[in-house]
Amino acid sequence: MEMPIPSARLYLKPEHDRPVRRHHPWIFSGALGRLEGPVEDGGLVEVFAFEGEWLARGYLNRRSQILVRLLTWDPHETIDASFWRQRLERAARARQALRLEEHTTAYRLVFAESDGLPGLIVDRYNDFLILQSLTLGIERWKPLLARLLQELFQPRGIYERSDVEVREKEGLPPRCGLLAGEAPPERLIISEHGLRFYVDLLRGHKTGFYLDQRENRHRAAAYLHGAEEVLNAFSYTGAFAVYALAAGARRVVNVDTSGEALQLALENVRLNGFDPGRVENVEGDAFQVLRRFVASGRRFDAVILDPPKFAYAQAHLNRAARGYKDINLQAMRLIRPGGLLITFSCSGLVSPELFQKIVFAAAEDAGREVQILEKLSQGPDHPIRLSFPESEYLKGLICRVW
């Protein structure tokens, strides 16, 4: 699949060129001055400053608030099959340099804008690749990308999991299905730091597993040796619970709204040779369950909070902040003096600084003294692009609560 050099020219409004010059990969609709020449949504455009200076090249979608996603700032770099191949190869070399396969059989191979491939996610699970196409521009190039991934990495199969809400903003329906090779089994086993986990690639959250938390699970486990009882809220399939048991915690309580996920959490406990009797599963809303635990006087040596994204848009930020404060407040009320709070936010709109302030406000209301022992972020296979602060979405704190 080859696309012609774009003839459409997009001119920015006056004084709207600075983010582009600083290599931020998004141009919002409010920056549009005028658009000249025919171009379909998903097609390529040349981007110019108001005065006429060429700035960058990217793909357009008038149906999205993010009008253009930029691909190159090099006027001589053509967006063709060679471009996509080189970007995929660069992402692969970066992962090879991390020597991830010494510790895991599952990791992120392509992280969208951070790898210069806006709208494209590719995760490796053993011999299978799971692809997410998040934008109309990537959707148009998807057949070529699938072919290149097959040629470069020779997986047993490439399966698409583009069943994410963000596609609605691009005017795209959800889509799942086989792109190349053979379909993955309903469930496979991956390894991570010597532990093993069942993963549902066809229906599980995200692409099947929270790959971005791999190093944080490992770091958290270092603090859980000898803990009598650990509360793992928003537990999903219990990865933090397995790490806690492996570290020597005596009991773990998993809390999740999904009974199916909790059942898989027990299977993961058995898979790693631990007694499932050491795990209590509680199906329900974590906010309500933690309140019940507080009211009943229950206490824990450690509480892990790994909630889903609370803020999907700027308009949700205040409500999200209240949610994060509330759940951390309830957690602090459950922790024995000297115990641990291991807390996360995966909302990109909540900065690390704001998240720390929210946890501090929760500590004030709980009347607890709190020390930060470690600050956590997403794994190195989810790199943060300096010109794109939005790529730093996951932040966490390991805290001592007195």
TrEMBL record:
Protein's cellular compartments: Cytoplasm
Protein EC: 2.1.1.191
A cellular component annotation (GO) from this entry: cytoplasm
Alphabetically ordered keywords of this record: Cytoplasm, Methyltransferase, RNA-binding, rRNA processing, S-adenosyl-L-methionine, Transferase
Main EC class the enzyme belongs to: transferase
Domain of life according to the entry: Bacteria
Residue span, PUA domain: 8-93
InterPro entries reported for this sequence: PUA, PUA-like_sf, PUA_sf, RlmI-like_PUA, SAM-dep_methyl-trfase, SAM-dependent_MTases_sf
SMART domains given in the database record: PUA
SUPFAM superfamilies per UniProt: PUA domain-like (SSF88697), S-adenosyl-L-methionine-dependent methyltransferases (SSF53335)
One GO MF term: RNA binding
A GO BP annotation: methylation
Family indicated by similarity: Belongs to the methyltransferase superfamily. RlmI family.
PANTHER family from the UniProt entry: RIBOSOMAL RNA LARGE SUBUNIT METHYLTRANSFERASE, S-ADENOSYLMETHIONINE-DEPENDENT METHYLTRANSFERASE DOMAIN-CONTAINING PROTEIN
Protein name: Ribosomal RNA large subunit methyltransferase I
Gene name as annotated: rlmI_2
